[in-house]
Amino acid sequence: ERKARFTAVLGHELRSPLHGIMGLSGTMGEAAIDPIQKKQLGMIKGCAARLLDLVTNIMEMAKAEAIDASSGQTIARAPVNTMDVVAEVLGMTEMAVDKSGKHLVKPGVEIMNSMCTGKLPIVMGDGYKITQLLYNLVTNAAKFTSAGSIRVSAREQKEEGMLEVEVADTGKGISPDSLAQIFEPFRQENSTETRGFQGIGLGLSVAMSIAKLHGGSIRVKSKVG
């Protein structure tokens, strides 16, 4: 409990100035005339956004651990429109940048919103956490997809009373030995190519924790190449 409180306070103290840095650098970048200055301000904003993602993931991991330790705790539940969440996440992903200030989505990679045109049910859950879950999955796909597409779709599983959301990409794939480890905190696939990517291995672990808090799970199908 003390650890959870400390993480919450620390996260709040870090997130507030990071939002300020992102807002100021964004405003200055829009007003800048010099292209070099505009690029540098964009890099500042991108670095702040990446750090904000890291802080958010650490906070979500701490909250999940606190809920696991206390059977009496539950997440907040309110109506969530999955169509709106997917649209927001894809928009944020297209704007995301890596540590060098380049767009996270590689040139030539298409982000595809393939949500069915039919009416999907409104789900009950924590909208902020669901957005974080999907954002972690889509940005992870963007990191490892150099060509092709990243597609997000959803369908209702009426018999189970669940909504299944699928993130499919044309990335390099995951080896069978690594599939069981990718949802462990601070674990990444151990390959020369993977070590070149940014991150500390929290995004997928946080996504799985959020899914379980909502009574769901995450399944992975992949093949190398």
Task: Please write out the topology.
Layout lengths: L1 H30 L3 H35 L8 E3 L1 H14 L13 E5 L9 E3 L1 H17 L4 E10 L4 E8 L6 H4 L23 H11 L12
Parallel strand pairs: 2-4
Antiparallel strand pairs: 1-3, 4-5
Helix pairs in contact: 1-2, 2-6, 3-4, 4-6
Core attributes:
single chain, 225 residues, alpha+beta, 5 strands, globular
What gap, in angstroms, lies between the N and C termini?
A: 44 Å
| Total beta-strand segments | 5
How many helices? The count is: 6
- Report strand order across the widest sheet: 2-4-5
The helix fraction, in percent, is 40-55%
Mean pLDDT reading: 81
Quote the beta fraction.
Answer: 5-15%
Order of helices and strands: HHEHEEHEEHH
**Biggest sheet features:** 3 strands, mixed
Computed over alpha carbons, the radius of gyration is 18 Å
- Name the poorly predicted regions: 191-196
Which structural category do the helix and sheet elements fall into? alpha+beta
Shape, please? globular
In short:
The chain has six helices and five strands.
Task: Write structural notes for this entry.
- By secondary structure, this protein is α+β, with helices and mostly antiparallel strands.
- 49% of the residues lie in helices and 13% in strands.
- It has six helices and five strands, in the order ααβαββαββαα.
- It is globular.
